[in-house]
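Is adenosine-5'-diphosphate placement plausible here? Inputs below.
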Amino acid sequence: MTKRTILDVDVRGKRVLVRVDYNVPVEYVDGDARITDDTRIRASLPTVQNLVKRGARVVLMSHLGRPKGKANPKLSLRPVADRLSYLMQKRVSFANDCIGSGAENSVNSLQDGDVLLLENLRFHPEEEKNDPSFSQQLARLGEVYVNDAFGTVHRAHASTEGVAHCMGERAIGFLIEKELHFLGEELKDPARPFVVILGGAKVSDKIRVIDRLLGKADAILIGGAMAYTFYLAQGKSVGKSLVEPDRVELAREALEKAAARGVDLLLPVDSYIVEEIDFENHQTSPGRYTRPEEEIPASWLGVDIGPATIAAMRKKIAGARTIFWNGPMGVFEIRGCDKGTFAVAEMVAENRDAVSIVGGGDSVKALHRSGLADRITFISTGGGASLEFLEGKPLPGVSVIPDKVEKEENQNAASSSAQGSNKALLPV
Ligand SMILES: Nc1ncnc2c1ncn2[C@@H]1O[C@H](COP(=O)(O)OP(=O)(O)O)[C@@H](O)[C@H]1O
Ligand SMILES: O=C(OP(=O)(O)O)[C@H](O)COP(=O)(O)O
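Reply from A.M.:
I modeled the complex. Tokens:
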């Protein structure tokens, strides 16, 4: 059964509250925010443009980063409104808050076909708590609820789940529809060997997924900060590397399970290490590679995989027939710590016999930086979301949208093909 989409809803003259994922990478140069990858904004355009064309009053809402429930000017969505306006060649207004009288006044002044972006939802702690009264305040801003935030469908937050229960009309947008369709088709019965590459910094979230992936993948290659929690589980020292001590037990269980099931769980055998890292100014102290199997000294931290690890990964990636990659291999934003990530991008791109899927905000940014994005089969806007989909878990942001009724399915088969341009592959 497929989900109701925006094509199943009459939107003309209605206030349509759309959850998008505009959690884009942002860097600050001389105090000014610069969006360094706008894939997620571009990916929302088919839905937003379709709603505008059909005379909806479009109210967009998103989070940006993890401000922990407090307003933080560095995580304002205002620069995103400017980029969206540029991409649409159309005025996009901005509300300084996502709830309250200011937001309601901004929404009420919209005309048919206008677009408004609300300020960062996560400036309110109630968003991530899925607080019912916060959901009701959001629901006052629209008659129709649309979820098109694929990157955030695995979160049961007020804007992705709670608010939908307060609104009569609900649907998914074209981005979620396309992602579910592609990932569903390709990952249902993946061509083997199926190789999953995992890295990045969201260790506590993503390490939980490994347990289920052990039943699906033939090999799991680990890099990024994720690797160091596994090192702890093996009793190795990790110095000052980013680790999640609460997840060491999970990592130990995953290692045991992988061995018992004969799944290749490949951990780095060497790392690029530094003594100091300044994320804000993109600098590190001079670094060096560890020798294979050398442990990380106490005052150092691992910030990339090393050449021996890259060589070991090359073999696995070259032989794969399906590749799923989420999470950079190191702090690729900083020169010197980017070699592992770009090497993996190259290896994935080089394997022309495999279906390759790369997902996640930062992974996709790295892929674009590598210049190899057009050699990847599918670029997903979701990292954690696509992993949870692969794991087979219900996604709260999708479950909350009703299924199509049969009559609608038949009607839309015709109207979707007529609207083919709205469903083009990601404009990346
Ligand atoms: N060894 C490491 N130590 C600290 N941060 C790391 C390390 N390796 C990768 N990262 C960081 O992980 C971040 C991306 O992680 P994550 O959000 O999990 O990926 P994605 O957005 O692709 O899902 C990047 O900003 C990168 O700098
Ligand atoms: O960037 C995101 O996920 P991703 O890093 O897994 O791609 C989404 O916007 C979700 O963000 P969250 O992991 O802070 O809930």
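Short version: Residues 21, 23, 66, 151-152, 155, 202, 360-361, 382-384 surround 1,3-bisphosphoglyceric acid (ligand 2) (CB under 6 Å).
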